[in-house]
Design a protein that fits this description.
Helix content: 40-55%
Oligomer: single chain
Distance between the termini: 44 Å
Number of strands: 8
Length: 317
């Protein structure tokens, strides 16, 4: 019944959704989403990745794979709004010492460092570098559903002792049920309180539980909540922003502009054949706690032989 001031809603449509269409969004789409998020009261908008142009060919992707300062400013100007701008930097996939300006020269507010649990030392080096440049930082530990308890506790201890601002619990494979998401959320929040860090949650919808898991973790003290317009994101997609904003019932957040955006921009994107969202093949990889790459290939090939796919995935566990 009360409004929690620590809650921050993070829109990841361009970044996670960009994995569905190689980040080839029109300028109109991105500018409209930026304005929509401001109208809706969204706290952060993640524009995409800061990927290395040495590792990824620019001609193979849209501009939001790289988030050049010029591209960002073409949309947000000096971002004279209360909403903050975020980008993601993957450990091992970015040239972070050369591709980031000091915060005083950039419109970016937060850098979200993504890593697997064995890459925590490299993530810590990046986090310190971004902190020294003046950015807010988060660490998004991917695929923790495949890590054991001692690995998670060790990672949380290391991050707790760092300068990171937000530590993210990430359900990369859409494996968690609400009770398991809640159990981990409590552990993350416990470490967050110990070290004075905020905790975030990023869900995938392989078992149609992204929204349920998001609000479940929130109830245990998670503050930063990721969502995307119509759940647009890699594979099965993410927590749908329209569900989250409707649930929060905070006068700060508004749903109307988002519904208009979905009508005008998301539906045509789907009509063009861009695919994401719950489907049987993603349910299977989610239930088996596996990366959705095989399910994504199954989808791209237009297959519907679910039984064969289930046998193939089960045999390769």
């Amino acid at each position: 019944m009360t409004v929690r001031p620590d809650i921050k809603v993070v829109d990841a449509t361009i970044r996670d959704g960009g994995l569905c269409n190689n980040f080839e969004f029109t300028d109109e789409f991105v500018k409209s989403l930026y304005k929509t998020n401001i109208e809706c009261g969204v706290d952060y908008m993640e524009f995409g990745y800061k990927a290395s142009k040495k590792l990824f060919n620019e001609s193979d992707f849209g501009k939001w794979k790289f988030c050049d300062e010029e591209a960002l400013r073409s949309v947000v100007g000096n971002n004279e709004s209360p909403m903050k701008i975020a980008v993601m930097a993957d450990v091992g996939r970015c040239d972070f010492r050369n591709d980031f300006l000091p915060k005083s020269e950039s419109v970016i507010d937060m850098v979200r460092v993504a890593c697997y649990i064995h890459q925590i030392p490299a993530a810590l080096e990046m986090i310190q570098y971004f902190h020294d440049l003046g950015y807010e930082t988060s660490c998004n530990i991917m695929a923790v559903s495949q890590a054991n308890e001692s690995q998670i506790e060790s990672a949380l201890d290391m991050l707790g002792q760092s300068c990171v601002d937000v530590i993210y619990l990430v359900d990369s494979y859409g494996y968690f049920y609400p009770e398991s998401a809640a159990e981990l959320a409590q552990k993350y929040v416990e470490y967050g309180e110990k070290y004075n860090k905020l905790i975030g949650f990023h869900a995938h919808n392989n078992q149609n539980l992204a929204f349920a898991n998001t609000i479940e973790t929130m109830s245990y003290g998670v503050s930063y909540l990721d969502a995307t317009a119509s759940g647009m994101g890699r594979g099965a997609g993410n927590c749908a922003m329209e569900l989250l904003l409707g649930f929060l019932r905070n006068p700060k957040y508004s749903l109307y502009a988002l519904l208009t955006f979905i009508e005008k921009y998301i539906l045509p994107l789907k009509a063009q054949g861009v695919k994401w969202g719950y489907d049987i093949q993603f349910m299977i990889t989610g239930q088996l706690n596996q990366h959705p790459r095989e399910a994504m290939k199954f989808t791209a090939d237009g297959r519907t032989d679910y039984c064969n796919f289930y046998k193939f995935i089960s045999d390769n566990e």
